[in-house]
Amino acid sequence: MKSETCCSSFVNNCKPYIAMMSLQFGYAGMNIITKISLNGGMSHYVLVVYRHAIATAVIAPFAFFFERKAQPKITFRVFLQIFVLGLLGPVIDQNFYYAGLKLTSPTFSCAMSNMLPALTFVMAIIFRMEKVDIKKVMYQAKVVGTIITVGGAMLMTLYKGPLVEMAWTKHRQSHGGSSSSSGETSDRDWFIGCILLIIATLAWASLFILQKHALKTYSNHQLSLTTWVCFMGTLQAIAVTFVMEHNTSAWRIGWDMNLLAAAYAGIVTSSISYYVQGLVMKTKGPVFATAFSPLMMIIVAVMGSFILAEKIYLGGVIGSAIIVIGLYSVLWGKYKEEQQLNHKRRMQEIPEAIKDNNNGSIVVISTEAKANETDNEKCPSVAIDLPLSHAPIKPTQ
């Protein structure tokens, strides 16, 4: 029985880690497929619309069949939360991210996304979701790690550096001749792409913070919340696309890479990721949910160099290394903080020992028994009277 309990607890503890690691593989595939689609001429505004329309169509039936009972009432406050979530995620985050991805590269975009835990930590402090006691080492690690992460992102933005050639991409790059200039972007476009990616990451961090509050209302209806956010984001993205994209032919989509990019992004990185992130944040918090982005950067770097023969620059390599160092400084501080909280929680669960001075015994009252005393039901409380052993009294001579 003990071994089964230990195994089940180990599996339950591993579930958040496995879920977030799996999502990073999904995000990595999305970056590669989307980059190919955008390079092929697809409008990122239209891509956002199709992506979240597909996500809504996929997730809505599950929400209807599994969560149709006891739905939370959509008050003005709840509607406003859903509206802002749709604006932050599908509209601002995705449009700016796709625009930055088009001007830079998949690996660089993923590296800039590593700023997400640091920005989420800063916003969590602002909204009093995280505590900071600068006298303790774990909080110092989180603050210093945040500063290092932002510094690494700034280095990547301002310094491109020489080209770093990989062993498996030299052969393909040497064939190109004049084609090498067609795939590269100018320094000005690269800088603009960096700024767009920073704005997208800031919107993404804001989404995590607000989603944590929205989950208080939809604690048992995560599928429903995901459906509403995707649906609201689709409507807002349509309005933005009508304003920004005046070419009606951009809406045409066939059985090609554009459809694959929209379907993959909608099913994997919108509907599934929003739902899984909500489940993880419910137990681990927003900082933990954003802590696995370096894994996505490594996956995309390998896939991008093989599939796209992607060029990697020295500034990106150095900046990525600095960001990862800062990121895991934040995570170490978060881990130590969780250990401290778990220790306090275990201490509170220990039964109280009350010493009875009259008869020299210790009465141990369990916490369940103490709670029963306040209940209206007549449940007997449990009290154990343990006599204290005294040393024998020597007779006086």
TrEMBL record:
Gene Ontology annotations for the cellular component aspect, listed alphabetically: membrane
Residue ranges of domain EamA in the record: 17-157, 192-331
Subcellular location: Membrane
MF (Gene Ontology): transmembrane transporter activity
Keywords of this entry: Membrane, Transmembrane, Transmembrane helix
Matches recorded under InterPro entries: EamA_dom, EmrE-like, WAT1-related
Transmembrane segments: 45-66, 78-100, 106-127, 139-159, 190-210, 222-243, 255-275, 287-307, 313-335
Entry-linked Pfam families: EamA
Membrane-related topology note: Multi-pass membrane protein
Main location: membrane
Family: Belongs to the drug/metabolite transporter (DMT) superfamily. Plant drug/metabolite exporter (P-DME) (TC 2.A.7.4) family.
The protein's name: WAT1-related protein
Species the sequence originates in: Buddleja alternifolia
Lineage, uppermost ranks: Eukaryota, Viridiplantae, Streptophyta, Embryophyta, Tracheophyta
